[in-house]
Design a protein that fits this description.
heterodimer, A: alpha+beta, Phenylalanyl-tRNA Synthetase, Chain B, domain 1, Phenylalanyl-tRNA Synthetase, Chain B, domain 3, 5 domains, seven-stranded mixed beta sheet, four-stranded mixed beta sheet, 20 helices, B: alpha+beta, BirA Bifunctional Protein, domain 2, 2 domains, 12 helices, about 20% strand, magnesium (chain A), ATP binding (chain A), DNA-bd_dom_put_sf (chain A), aa-tRNA-synth_II/BPL/LPL (chain A), phenylalanine-tRNA ligase activity (chain A)
Chain lengths: ~700, ~375
């Protein structure tokens, strides 16, 4: 909003500070001046940002009142005197919707001359870069800028009968001032005559009854409309006008006669006269809600309780509170029983003031926020972490250490992705007003977002990427949305150590599995295993390669899925490079406690290494071999791990349909150095078990 | 190495023995000069310690044989010392720490090292954790809440009445198919983290001190400074005798902790439906020290927080479930800040969208 300091100073002649200081003083009191522009001999132009609750300050007089309060100066009254009207009949006004229109005034001006504005109005419009239309229309706009109340001028000769405030009829048409014909809703309040709707009340006037160069007689409307009704009409018809902006924030019920008089004075400057007196229809219930609200109790002690210590040891005194509130238009009546308690009558233009706390805010604001001290409250109590904070921190630390970078992706996915990636079929939640079609559904999985991010990297010729995301996923329905924490990771390109000293290793399934294993190893669990199900079983996510993906199971619960992206999904996304992706259900993982490491006695005796080279048919997965050895329960077996896997499609080194496995065992006893025969016997047991598992010793 | 003559001992007193052994020690030094090959080491060993013709043996036999009984002990000790010296030379030569041997094994240490890159922390998450940690040190517990909220928690209980213009400032993304529900039950993407204030107070009587980090959403078109997804940190402190000056002191202290002790704060009246009095907080620009720079738009100040005293109307809503929040007996303050903007300033990020792109080139800068 633009404000002229010249105009402000006309209302508060005593302001002695410069425009720049005035701007700072207003800003510190919450009447924010965002920019000050020098207009030379015309003072300055303030670019202002008035908060939505302060509709009373969205005009020159309102800001002048603030300035008068700050500096303790007198605010000049507005000049509303009009020459006495010539006798005439009382113009009929009827409010049929008292809930929507609380007050309506009508003033008839006859014999007016419609011409371009001149003088002070024209000059101020020029300084404000406001469009000039005609003296009558400009008068209404000028008065809004001056004191904030919107008014409207009708061409009286276009009106028939009298003014009726009613709801629009079903399907009723109105051509508004912007030239658009609108179909009204029965919820819309209209200003009508006996024949038809003339204006969308409080939002925009009508085309047919507008003032034109031919207009001779005018009806000046100043009214008070229900804020919620205006807001609904404005939203319904997508018309946001200066008038609707003000009415929907609550106009000053008492300002109507003043606004009407100010507009009429301006129009009559070019000739004409008033006929009769201003017609004023008041709905008492609306007056009681606004202009005649009951007074509220206020005590300075309560202000001190809320506001605390000031730099000035005197603090908030009763005198200071009285001066501030009176300056803002309140009337204070001291309570008999206490010096510091009052009954306060609220000004009609401050509908935002309703309770004691509002008055306390006014006092703090005008007194100056920065005159309060910086104190720290005492506190006795513990700091409580989120129950999963430690688990999340361990996950994040582990993933970062493994070389994955943290990413944050969109909360929303396309409907197709939602359907394809929802862990439970059909369990996803669409938005009612999405930003775009690609962002129409709350993500049921972090996987599509991860794929989008990896795709972005590949499309920008970044070949190596390793990302993870910890975030919320959404399931359920539009009736009941379920939120769960999840973790996704995605790797593509080459991985691990890089430099000129070793060749880059392309990422494989086992890199991703290693990440999952490291993560799961941080949690306490009795049994962790990985399995997979054939493609046709439908038990694996459809977006994963059925032969190269796995389910992670911890203590009987599925923790998530990971593996190579399904080739169909890769094609759909035009991905040429292999991508490995996975998702962990953190709500489930967080049910496991973190593993608490315990030191064990380290053996003093020498460990002995034994290697076993076996050939197994492809039908024997490694897990079976691992189980077979574990089942032996050899206490001296410190570790047992595959060290090399070899396949030969030509069948030269290893028969086709088989693979060779080099297994390394470390044997170490806690009791003593193992003797040769003991080692022999243990090795024999291991070999027997390997044979039983389907293996044969490699020749 | 040629067989040298056995030196003669001048006398058996200490001075004469010292001189004789010093000469042998010099001879040892000289012969140990070129132990750069295995052959040289072996020949050195044979020369000094050889069982048959070793010089040490020859000399000790010659000297000890003619020595008087009382001097034998002195001579023996000195030979042991010399032998230890010889063995030490041999040992260092065979383990390859002789400077000559190791120089031959030199590598180009100017080639880049093999790097195992750590993952990069996300600048937003890092900023959020750092800010939360500041408040944890001040006694605040961490609170969180759902990202999909009801109209009641996101608006109504925070004193945004239905149909109120203040709702316009927070363009809301709504869940589909809510029209037939009562307004208060309709689901939407939370537009701020403030609903967690209400949820926390409903569950816990005063005193309350929580800091609430979280993701929020608005129906905003994306540009360099706007994103429909962003992050906020909210704080709430409720107790008896909590004042506006406590709010000022708390935020002043927190901003000094986060940005550095030189940072100053100043408070401007503002409007939020759920606080009263409400304030906007500016900090003196931590990047230029308040002199004026691009980051503070040459004003020396940066607007960073919204805050205020909890509106009694909000306590009124909470009292429906927790009667202890009697606005006549308790009071409190709340504050909130945008994490994205802070992270953008702190790390010199010019486009907010980069935070949500997953672009590795962007993220790896923060490793």
């Amino acid at each position: 909003m633009k404000i002229l300091t010249q105009w402000l100073r006309e209302y508060v002649p005593g302001i002695s500070v410069s425009d720049k200081e005035l701007a700072d003083d207003l800003t510190l009191r919450g009447i924010a001046v965002e920019g000050v522009f020098d207009l030379g001999s015309h003072g300055s132009l303030f670019d202002m940002d008035i908060t939505t609750n302060r509709v009373d300050a969205m005009n020159h007089y309102g800001i002048a009142r603030e300035a008068a309060t700050i500096y303790g100066l007198q605010l000049q009254p507005l000049e509303t005197a009009l020459p006495a009207g010539r006798p005439g009949h009382i113009y009929p006004v009827s409010i049929e919707e008292p809930a929507l229109c609380g007050r309506f005034t009508a003033r008839v001006l006859r014999g007016v001359t419609i011409q371009p504005s001149s003088g002070g109005v024209a000059e101020r419009f020029r300084l404000l870069e406001q469009k000039l239309i005609s003296n009558a229309v400009d008068a209404t706009n000028y008065v809004t800028l001056a004191m904030g109340h919107p008014t409207h001028a009708f061409d009286l000769d276009r009106l028939e009968g009298g003014i009726i405030l009613r709801r629009a009829r079903k399907g009723e048409k109105l051509r508004t001032l912007d030239g658009i014909e609108r179909t009204l809703d029965t919820e819309d309040l209209v200003v009508a005559d006996e024949r038809q709707a003339l204006a969308l009340a409080g939002v925009m006037g009508g085309w047919d009854s507008r003032v034109t160069e031919e207009t001779k007689n005018i009806l000046v409307e100043a009214a008070w409309f229900d804020p919620v009704s205006i807001r609904r009409s404005s939203k319904r018809h997508l018309i946001h006008t200066d008038a609707s902006h003000r009415f929907e924030r609550g106009a000053d019920f008492n300002a109507l006669p003043v606004a009407s008089a100010l507009v009429s004075r301006l129009i009559l400057q070019a000739g004409g006269h008033q006929e009769g007196e201003m017609v004023d229809v008041v709905i008492p219930e609306a007056a009681a809600r606004t202009a005649h609200r009951s007074s509220i109790a206020f005590s300075v002690g309560e202000a001190r309780r809320i506001l605390g210590a000031t730099e000035d040891p005197a603090g908030i005194t009763a005198g200071a509170a009285e001066t501030i509130l009176t300056g803002l238009g309140c009337t204070l009546q001291k309570q008999v029983q206490s010096d510091e308690a009052y009954q306060v009558t609220l000004p009609s233009w401050r509908l935002d003031l309703a309770g004691e706390i509002d008055l306390i805010e006014e006092i703090a604001r005008v007194y100056g926020y920065n005159r309060f001290r910086n104190t720290l409250p005492a506190f006795a109590g513990g700091v409580v972490e989120l129950p999963w904070a430690a688990r999340e921190a361990v996950l994040r630390r582990t993933l970062l250490a493994l070389g994955l970078s943290e990413a944050v992706s969109s909360t929303f996915v396309a409907a197709g992705d939602a359907a394809a990636f929802a862990p439970q079929p059909g369990s996803f939640v669409p938005l009612g007003n999405p930003l775009s079609e690609e962002a129409g559904v709350l993500r049921p999985s972090l996987a599509p977002g991860m794929l989008t991010m990896l795709t972005l990297n590949l499309n920008r010729d970044v070949e190596n990427a390793a990302l993870f995301e910890i975030g919320t996923v959404f399931g359920g329905s539009t009736d009941r949305v379920e939120e769960r924490p999840a973790l996704a990771f995605g790797i593509t390109g080459s991985t691990g150590a890089h430099g000129p000293h070793q060749p880059a290793q392309p990422v494989s399934f086992y890199d991703l599995k290693g990440v999952v294993e490291e993560l799961l190893a941080k949690f306490a669990s009795k049994l962790v295993y990985f399995d997979r199900f054939p493609g046709e079983s439908g038990l694996m996510p459809a977006w994963l390669h059925p032969g190269r993906s796995a389910r992670a199971v911890v203590d009987g619960a599925t923790m998530g899925y990971f593996g190579e992206l399904h080739p169909d999904e890769a094609r759909r996304r035009k991905l040429k490079q292999t991508i490995f992706v996975g998702e962990i259900y953190l709500d489930r993982l967080y049910r496991q406690g973190l593993r608490h490491p315990m030191a064990r006695e380290l053996s003093r005796f020498q460990p002995v290494r034994r290697d076993f080279s076996f050939i197994f048919p492809e039908s024997v997965p490694y897990a079976r071999i691992e189980h077979a050895i574990a089942a032996l329960g050899i206490p001296e077996l410190r570790s047992f791990a595959p060290r090399e896997v070899l396949r030969d499609p030509q069948g030269k080194l290893v028969p086709v349909g088989h693979y060779s496995l080099l297994l390394g065992a470390v044997l170490q006893s806690a009791e003593g150095t193992m003797r040769e025969e003991q080692l022999q016997e243990t090795a024999q047991r291991i070999m027997t078990a390997l044979h039983a598992a389907g293996g044969s010793l490699r020749g | 190495m040629s067989q040298e003559a056995i030196p003669q001992l001048a006398a058996y007193n200490d001075a004469a023995l010292d001189a004789a052994f010093a000469a042998l020690s010099q001879e040892l030094d000289a012969s140990a000069q070129s132990l750069t090959s295995a052959e040289a080491v072996e020949s050195f060993r044979l020369h000094w310690l050889g069982r048959k013709q070793g010089r040490l043996k020859a000399i000790s036999e010659a000297w000890l044989k003619s020595a008087p009984v009382e001097a034998k002990k002195q001579i023996g000790q000195r030979f042991n010392q010399l032998k230890a010296e010889i063995e030490q030379r041999l040992e260092s030569a065979s383990t390859g720490t002789g400077s000559g041997a190791l120089d031959a094994e030199a590598i180009d240490i100017t080639l880049p090292g093999t790097r195992r890159a750590l993952g990069a922390e996300h600048p937003l998450i890092k900023t959020m954790h750092e800010m939360v940690a500041v408040f944890q040190r001040m006694g605040y517990s961490v609170g969180v809440g759902p990202e999909v909220e009801t109209d009641y928690y996101n608006f109504e209980s925070l004193n945004f009445p239905p149909g109120h213009p203040a709702r316009d400032t927070q363009d809301t993304l709504v869940v589909a198919n809510q029209e037939r529900k009562p307004l208060r039950d309709r689901l939407l993407m939370r537009t701020h983290t403030s609903p967690v204030q209400i949820r926390t107070m409903e569950q816990q009587p005063p005193p309350v001190r929580i800091v609430i980090p979280g993701k929020v959403h608005r129906n905003d078109a994306a540009d360099a400074t706007h994103s429909p997804i962003f992050h906020q940190i909210e704080g709430l402190c409720v107790d008896t005798n909590i004042t506006f000056s406590d709010l000022k002191g708390t935020l002043d202290h927190a901003m000094k902790e986060f940005f550095g002790s030189n940072v100053k704060t100043r408070f401007f009246p503002s409007f939020f439906p759920f606080t009263e009095p409400s304030a906007d907080v500016q900090i003196s620009c931590p990047f230029c020290g308040g002199k004026g720079c691009r980051k503070c738009k040459h004003s020396g100040w940066i607007e960073l927080l919204g805050c205020g005293m909890v509106n009694p109307a909000v306590f009124g809503f909470v009292q429906q479930k927790q009667p202890a929040y009697d606005p006549k007996k308790i009071s409190g303050f709340a504050f909130g800040m945008g994490v994205d903007r802070i992270a953008m300033m702190k790390y010199g990020v010019s486009d907010i969208g980069q935070f949500y792109s997953g672009d590795t080139r962007f993220l790896e800068q923060f490793a």
